[in-house]
Amino acid sequence: MFLAGGIMDLKRNDFIIIFQKAFLVIILLLIITLLVLHKFKKSTKAVDNQLPVDEDVVYLISKLKEDIVSNGEGLYLDNEKYVYKGVNVNNYVKYNGIIWRIVEFDENITLITDEVITSLSYGENNDFDESYIKKYLSNTGDINSGVFENKILGNGEALTFKNLCLNETCSEKSSRQKVGLLSKEQYENSKVSDETYIDGSFFLITKKNNNIYYVVDGDLKDTLPNEIHGIKPIIFIKGDVLYIDGDGSIETPYILNKTNGINIGDFVSIDDITYRIIDKNNNSYKIALDGVFDNDIVYSKYHNKFLVNELDSVAYYLNHEYYDSLNKEILLNTTWYNGIFEDENHDYSNIYSDSFISHVGLLNIGDFYINDYTDYYLMTPSIDNEIYVIQDYNVRRSKIDKIYKIRPCFSIKRNIGINGGNGTKNDPYILVTNEDENISK
Predict the structure, then answer these.
(1) Residues facing residue 110 across a β-bridge
(2) 365, 380 in Cβ contact below 8 A?
(3) Phi-psi region of 170 (alpha: psi -120 to 50; beta: other; left: phi over 0)
(4) Distance from C-alpha of 342 to C-alpha of 124, rounded to nearest angstrom
(5) What does R_g of the chain's alpha carbons equal in angstroms?
(6) Which of 62, 159, 212, 436 is the most buried (most CB within 10 A)?
(7) Reduced to 3 DSSP states, what percent helix, strand and coil does the chain have, rounded to the nearest 5?
């Protein structure tokens, strides 16, 4: 009996253990089911924009769709695509420290830089995939390619790729790009009463026979591809990018990502003089005067090269008299490129074929923001002992003995402190040159 009772107790205990395990399995399955259902609910696709529905986040596209118009200036729904039209539209975006404008969006968002970034020749022909502009904008594997991508876009986690229409019927398309140029159709579609927020003089990507379209002061024209005009790049942002902040105005643009510190394009103030950041690396910022000043010195009496020891030249003045006016504590020596930009071959990378080191220099063709001001020297030499200058806000050739204004450029230490400002033209970052002051970096 005792043995039989023991066996019965053992079986009862086994049953209890089995029951407990089964109960735990059922509870676990219920939890998993609830989690799956919750995840499914959050990832349900919205019919209008194919974005995941999530009460905890706001997508930029959803935010933009709150202000659709049917007349006047603003955001239109145009053939299943949302397009900004007119002059006074709140489509400003800040991405990677640069101000952009939203051109249009469907499942992705097309942005264009608000400013002309630089001036370049399109190329030896009007095929974008073979152009110098594509090499400048994107990493193509060529030496010195991807200037814009490397300095402005970085890893570009929010970017996506598109094929670009190369002619007016879109029968020709480029390879897939994440940075390119605006098309003639996109430019014309941005207008209301023949006016648009996309201003300046710049190349389009659209071919016209053997020429290429460009915009000059609001007018559409065409030109040979080896001519030099402004560049306003476009990029493509993934449609699921989140809305962080802003209302799309110039004062408070939509913010797509948070950036720390000083970026290319920002304005800084040193000893009450304003400069613009045109480049940066791990150790330094390269800055150019935000403005130009009058000058009575010829570029050179003898050479189109920037020779700092040639008396009575702009190079000598900048690296002696002007240099003496600068704060030496923050100044750095800089490598400057001085290769010839040939008439027959307007490949910007030729500039990198020659270089020298000095404290102060000038801007080159291909540097950012050379079109901000006009009637001043560049340091890019041309053939026939001539140089390039900015005239009428575009690149022109000039004799070396003709006098233009000066826009100095130099490099400063990157670990300098910031003591106010927000980096805009009207409120530049105030850079601290005295280590005893209260600063932030």
Answers:
(1) 104, 236
(2) yes
(3) left
(4) 12
(5) 29
(6) 212
(7) 20, 35, 45
Q: How far apart are CA 279 and CA 435, in angstroms?
A: 24
The tokens for 199 are 């201003």
Q: Taking Cα atoms as reference points, which of 343, 340, 345 lies closest to residue 132?
A: 345
Read off the pLDDT of residues 152-196 as tens digits, 9 standing for 90 and up: 987 778 899 999 999 999 999 998 999 999 999 999 999 999 999
Q: Which amino acid is at 280?
A: K
Pairing of strands 92-95, 98-105: antiparallel
**Among 373, 378, 371, residue whose Cα is nearest residue 299:** 378
Q: What are phi and psi of 356, to 5 degrees?
A: -155, 170
Residue ranges of domains in the chain? 60-255, 267-432
Residue 9 CA neighbour count, 13 Å, CB half: 6
User: Exposed/middle/buried for 225, CB within 10 Å: 0-12, 13-18, 19+?
Assistant: buried
What own/partner pairs with CB < 8 Å and gap ≥ 24 does 45-49 have?
A: 49/107, 49/239
| Cβ-contact 277, 264 below 8 angstroms | yes
Please report where in the chains the tokens 């900015």 appear, as a residue. 390
Quote the CA–CA distance of 79 and 183 in Å, as a whole number: 17
Measuring CA to CA, which residue among 260, 261, 287 is closest to residue 274?
287
User: Given this model, what pLDDT does residue 49 score?
Assistant: 43
* Predicted structure pTM score: 0.85
How far is it, in rounded angstroms, from Cα 69 to Cα 309? 62
**Which DSSP letter does residue 381 get?**
E
Q: What are 135's two structure tokens? A: 């090499």
How many other C-beta atoms lie within 10 A of the C-beta of residue 311? 9
Segment 413-431 shows an average pLDDT of 94
Contacts 24+ apart (CB under 8 A), 49-58: 49/107, 49/239, 50/107, 50/239, 51/239, 51/240, 52/240, 57/242, 58/242, 58/243
Cα–Cα distance measured from residue 222 to residue 195, given in angstroms and rounded to the nearest whole number: 19
Instruction: Give every CB contact of residue 199 below 8 A, 6+ residues apart in sequence.
Output: 218
Distance CA 108, CA 169 (A): 22
What pLDDT, on the 0 to 100 scale, is given for residue 409? Answer: 98
CA atoms within 13 A on the CB side of 66: 11
Q: Are 65 and 232 in contact (CB under 8 A)?
A: no
CB 149 within 8 A of CB 139: yes
